[in-house]
Amino acid sequence: MDARCILHVDMDAFYASIEQRDKPELRGKPVVVGGENRGVVAAASYESREFGIRSAMPMVEARRRCPDLIRVAPRMSHYRAVSRQIFAVFREFTPLVEGLSLDEAFLDITGSLKLLGDGERVAVEVKKRIQERTGLTASVGVAENKLIAKIASDLDKPDGLVVVPADSVTAILDPLPVAVIPGIGRKTLPRLEQLGVRTVGDLRTAPEGRLESIFGRYTSTTRQRAAGIDSRPVVAEREEKSISAEETFDQDLDDRHDMEHKLMQLSERTSARLRRAGLQAATVQVKIRQSDFTTSTRQTSLRPPGNGTEAIYAAARGLLSAWLADNPGARVRLLGVGGGSLSPAQQADLFEDAHSPSAVDETVDAIRERFGNTAMSRASGLPRRDDG
Q1: What is the DSSP string of 8-67?
Q2: Which of 39, 43, 195, 352 could cysteine-pair with 16, CB 3.0–4.6 Å?
């Protein structure tokens, strides 16, 4: 089998970089994108990372580390639009593009090398076109497989380019901390430390018998990863498994009426995303996180499958109701609504359209498309107003 050439392209601090691009007054300052107060950091600028701020960190902790931190509310529709520009660049080089998120993808350019040159030349051109069209920088790893390319893209951020030739894999990987190997997380690291395994080289050369107590049946695979062995292909058009929306609240919700209002808003967002993607859901899930961070999920079938707001909300409301019956007096800090078991949306049956988009859905979609997501909402999704 001929050697492959894989690129892993990872945009640098994507959401935060877009905000700094669009708002010059934010450039050079510590910026995070994320929810207010009890939300979490979705993206951190490189200036904020100097304070130890990272994605998924609670916003309260981020502000503690950097009192001058600037928080920007997410603009997901805008980020998706920029992402489409970036992925359009990818497809100018190869049809084999495996998107991992809005700002990250694998590209298999093996079949393009005769026309475009070597992997490094292609990577330079990819970075150049992204910069020209979006004003943003990307870091790229170039290697013979996905594992090494992904590790390489993180070695010289931001705006980096690292090429790992096939005969240099061991020399480059061995000195790296063992945490760069996928699947080795915070719980595993202390156990490896006790065995004296601190680097990828330590892991690669450790006797298999010593590692079995930690990795079990995955020991052999883990050691192969440490040796840079990875045969996974780049898979274009990854199937989307679910579409969801969730929200963390500034104050815990303890009133059922308030929870149902939020649930309607989340159902609207989820159903609108399904319709934009041309998909319908056969299952509906709700995610509920209590004030003590205990998290529960509940799921039910949607028959027939659909993407109408009312059907998704009705299913979600039923799940929430059953959960509240089992958890009386619960205080809720987060709610989420998702649609799963996705398939292409079908033409609505005139006599069985309860789960299909209603005229209200179509009107709301059209207005939001033109004026933004906050331009219109159902009355049942609006906050309750006190009398008087």
Answers
A1: EEEETTHHHHHHHHH-GGGTTS-EEEE-STT-BEEEE-HHHHTTT--TT-BHHHHHHH-T
A2: 43
Name the residue type at position 47.
E
Q: What is the DSSP letter of 4?
A: P
Whole-model pTM? 0.67
Question: 209's torsion region: left (phi>0), alpha (psi -120 to 50) or beta?
Answer: alpha
Domains of the chain as residue ranges with CATH: 11-144 (3.40.1170.60), 170-226 (1.10.150.20), 242-381 (3.30.1490.100)
Q: What is the pLDDT of residues 125-146, one digit of tens each?
A: 999 999 999 999 999 999 999 9
Stretch among 249-253, 284-288, 374-378 having the lowest mean pLDDT? 374-378
Question: In this structure, which long-range contacts are made by residues 34-42, counting pairs with CB atoms below 8 Å and at least 24 apart in sequence?
Answer: 34/59, 34/62, 34/71, 34/74, 35/59, 35/73, 35/74, 35/247, 35/248, 36/71, 36/73, 36/250, 37/250, 38/248, 38/249, 38/250, 38/333, 39/248, 40/248, 42/15, 42/74
- Report whether 308 contacts 357 (CB < 8 A): yes
- Give helix 76-90 / helix 14-22 axis angle, nearest 10°: 110
Q: Quick one: which of 310, 306, 270, 272 has its CA closest to 286?
A: 270
Q: Which two tokens stand for residue 117?
A: 């040159």
pLDDT digits (tens, 9 = 90+) for 219-259: 888 999 999 999 999 988 655 678 999 998 888 899 999 99
Contact 149, 143 (CB under 8 A): yes
CB 263 within 8 A of CB 286: yes
